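#onboarding

Welcome to the new folks! Below is a worked example of what a typical request in this channel looks like: someone posts a single protein sequence, and someone else replies with the predicted structure as tokens. Don't worry about understanding the tokens yet, we'll cover that in week two.

Example request:
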Amino acid sequence: MLDNKVTIDRMSYHPFGKSASLVTDFLDTIYNRSLVTINIDNADSITVINKSNGKTGVFEGARLKDLTDALAFTPSHPVTFHDDNDYSVQYVLNIQYKDGSSEELSIVKCPAILYKNQYLSVDLYALELIQEEVDN
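Example response:
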């Protein structure tokens, strides 16, 4: 943004009035294309394993609701790794669903969660809940 103008695809806009809404609509379209919602609200329980010390914790009832709400905090952003150490798994979540199926998710150190083959940002409250449960 120079001289009170924004240039997008060789078109210049002044960030006032209608031009401002065109710019924000364009950015919103780009931004929201890469956002993902984690859908685990039908979980029956989640067992979390701390990979460094082997401790486990089980989330059920109200604690499960707190964790699933935090993990499904919408939306999650794709994560860019800057260091190979960022890829190392810190926690493994084994999710048991009400229909009898299960799924395993990993949280890596940067922190990010591996969900549907994509690394996504983790809500810090979810990470705090997990740490309280398995790191004490």
